[in-house]
C-alpha cells in the first residue's frame, strides 16, 4: 500500500525489492496537479485517493486539505449504495418485490398516471416524477409520509418516456422497499449492506433517521466506499460471504433507463446510460460495459474498471463533481496503463525498448518478458545497477515475487540475481 510520499525504489546492498509492482507515479502527478488547479476547471482543495487492484489496496494517499480516512458527504454517490439496498430486497422477497413491479403495489398513494411507475424506473431517473421534492428534506416526516407527498406532485413526462436526473423517485422507491421488506430503510441498510461489509463510518445522516435521503444522504470515506464497490465488482461477494446475489449485481449494471428517450436533465451532458443507482459510463467498441461510476455533487466519486479489475475512490466534499470527474477521467487510464505494464515476473525488469522499469512505468510499453528485459538486465548487471537487483544472494526472488524482505540476505547485484533472472527468463508470464 502506498501512503503519503511513498515510492517504490531499489537500493543495492539492502533487502528492498526491485521495482516490480505499480508505483502509480502518473496518478500521483495528476492528483498533485489537480490540487494546484492544473488539468481541471478549478483547484480541488483536498481529497483522498484509494485504488484497489484485484482485491488488494495498492495505493492510498491524501492530497491537499484532506487526510486518510476522513469522512465526507457522499451526496449522489449514495444512489449506488441505495441501489444495492433495493436489490437486497429483490433478493429476499422471492419475486414479490422486483424492478418491474409498480410502486403502487406498495404505496397506494401512487394512483392514476403514476400507478404504473415501476421500481426500476424510479431508480433510473425515468419515472416521470419531478427531479426533486421538498419532502425529502423534512426531518420530522417518515419515509412513507414523504413518499405520499411525492405521489401528489404532477408528472413531468409519461413514465419511461424521458430521463430526468434527480432524487424524488428514488425516495419513493425506498418507501416501497420498506413496505415490501417490513423493515425501516436504515435497518435494511445496516443488515444487508453495512453489517456484512463492516461499514461503520458510512451512514445516512441526511435528512433524519425516519426520513433518510435515499438519493443523497450518506457520508462515507474512501476505504469503506471502495470496499463496497469492490464487493460489486466481485459479483456481490465480500471476504467469501455473499452480500448480494450475482443476478442482483448484474441488474445494477444493466441499463435501466430507456435508450433514445429525451434527456431532460443530467449532470453529464447528453448521458443517460444508467443502471440501478449507478452510472454505466464506459463501454468498449462492442458495447460491453467496462466501467461504472458513483459520483456526488461535491466531488465524492468512486468507480469500477471491470476489464482491469480496478476499483478507485476519491473522497472529498470540498470540490465540485465536474472538476473531480475531470481528474478521475485522467486517473483511470493512467491506473490502467500502470497495472497493464506492471512487471509479471522477476525477469521482467525492463520495458519493451530495453530501458529499465522504474517510476512512471505507465508511460512505457511492457508486454512481458522479452529481449528488452534481457538487454536491461545485462546492461545493469555489470554496473551493479539497482534494477538488476532482483533476488536474494541465494537466487530466490525478492518481493513481490518472492518472500518477505527479511527472509534472506541481499548484498546487492551478484550471482543470485544472475541465476534468478535466467531461471525466470524462459518462463512465460503467469
Polypeptide structure, described:
The protein is α+β, with helices and mostly antiparallel strands. It folds into two domains: 1-21 and 346-430, no CATH class; 72-340, DD-peptidase/beta-lactamase superfamily (Beta-lactamase, 3-Layer(aba) Sandwich). Helix content is 30%, strand content 13%. The chain contains eleven helices and 13 strands. The chain has helices spanning 25-35, 78-92, 119-122, 143-151, 168-181, 185-197, 222-233, 246-252, 321-341, 371-381, 415-425; strands at residues 46-53, 56-64, 72-73, 163-164, 203-204, 218-220, 237-238, 241-242, 263-265, 279-283, 289-295, 301-305, 310-315. The strands form four sheets. A six-stranded antiparallel sheet has the order 2-1-13-12-11-10, with helices on both faces. Strands 3-6-5 form a three-stranded antiparallel sheet. A two-stranded parallel sheet has the order 4-9. Strand 1 and strand 2 form a beta hairpin. Helix 2 runs parallel beside helix 5 (168-181) and helix 2 (78-92) crosses helix 8 (246-252). The longest helix is centred in the C-terminal third of the chain and has 21 residues, at 321-341. The protein is elongated. Mean pLDDT is 92; it is low at 1-20.
